[in-house]
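Risk mitigation, structural track. In case the binding assays with 5-O-phosphono-beta-D-ribofuranosylamine fail to produce interpretable data, a predicted complex structure has been prepared as a fallback.
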Amino acid sequence: MLRIVVCVSGGGTNLQAILDGIDAGKVTNTEVIAVISNNAGAKALQRAEEKGIPGICISPKNYENREAFNRGFTDELCRRKPDLVVLAGFLVKIPDQAVAAFANRIVNIHPSLIPSFCGVGYYGLKVHEKVLERGVKVTGATVHFVNEGMDEGPIIAQKAVAVEDGDTPEILQKRVMEQAEWILLPRAIDDIANGRIGLVEGKVRRLQGNVTGLI
Ligand code: GRF
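Fallback model:
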């Protein structure tokens, strides 16, 4: 059983997609053992509570400096001993010590086709604003492993979504969620939980047969 901790800052619709996927039997071999948010009011924490999943708020605001927060966040993760950490709309930079402690065991969902529209300053609605500003015709979402860089880790899965005339950032964000994010993230977790993907020379590859424990 893949025990996952999901980190979320806001609405938690990606968290919900994971929970629904587990309930529907589309995500197998997976258990959400905790939800962490930096925002005590996050709807995601309510979603966790409804499911009887422990919800924890760890905010940089409650620590005297960033270093103390980084230690607190990493310690909390280590205490929970997850097999995988899922960043599902988590707007806080993951401390380097957490990335080191969970090397190749943290995944993130980003609402664009990396390496476009990603990196510092590209988060939430801002990504979709920049997409519309540039006038690209195709955008999408990416699930990737997290390394020390910003949106730079090995890519697990991507899905393209059309940009349409008249789109606002909000409309485009909704389409990217519906057509890409809510499908890609649960599927990537299911692939990891069932040993279908692994890292080969720094790239994510589909494995032949089911081999667990390769990430
Ligand atoms: C998603 O678009 C995610 O890709 C982004 O933030 C949004 C979070 O939405 N980084 P939700 O909290 O899952 O509803």
